[in-house]
Design brief:
The protein is mainly alpha-helical. It has one domain (22-151): Aspartate Aminotransferase, domain 1 (Alpha-Beta Complex), CATH 3.90.1150. 50% of the residues lie in helices and 11% in strands. A 3-stranded antiparallel β-sheet has the order 1-2-3. The longest helix has 20 residues, at 132-151. The termini are far apart.
Length: 152
């Protein structure tokens, strides 16, 4: 296992770049994006959201929830519709484990109870580019709104 000069320079460049970032400003931008997605998604009656920042991880993750039985749409079906839409939107769920730490927030709780918790649809704000919060929010509103209408 040899580390090449390219990898060493890449790590050095990353460390130097992170030293220049204003983390408070980044958090404000991420929080603003999450609020925009929340506002758009929550225009559908019965949809709720929660912004979480796990201790020590430093990036916010937005969890979107709805009554899956009432909407006749579970988390996996919603994630599939988002992924198959245009543009494709990938979200975190139990099945779509991207190894982003946000997926494991409830790990300790689940281990103590010995059973899996509910599936959740999560969006990591640090992965969004400027303007993408509008795309994600509108698409969530569309998918969840259609499901709610069809279930009524």
């Amino acid at each position: 296992m040899k580390v090449g000069k390219e990898e060493i320079m890449g790590v050095l460049a990353a460390v130097e770049a992170w030293k220049k970032y204003d983390l408070a400003d980044m958090m404000q931008v991420w929080t603003s994006r999450a609020k925009k997605i929340s506002q758009l998604a929550e225009t559908v009656p019965g949809v709720a959201s929660e912004l979480q920042v796990a201790a020590g991880r430093g990036y916010p993750t937005l969890t979107i929830t709805w009554d899956e039985a009432a909407f006749k749409l579970d988390v996996q079906a919603c994630a599939r519709k988002l992924r198959e839409g245009s543009p494709p939107i990938d979200v975190l769920t139990k099945v779509n484990r991207s190894h982003v730490a946000a997926v494991d927030w409830d790990k300790d709780t689940l281990l103590s109870k010995g059973q899996p918790g509910p599936d959740r649809l999560r969006i990591v704000m640090s992965t969004l580019q400027p303007g993408e919060e509008l795309i994600v929010g509108r698409r969530l509103r569309e998918v969840l709104g259609e499901a709610r209408k069809a279930a009524s």
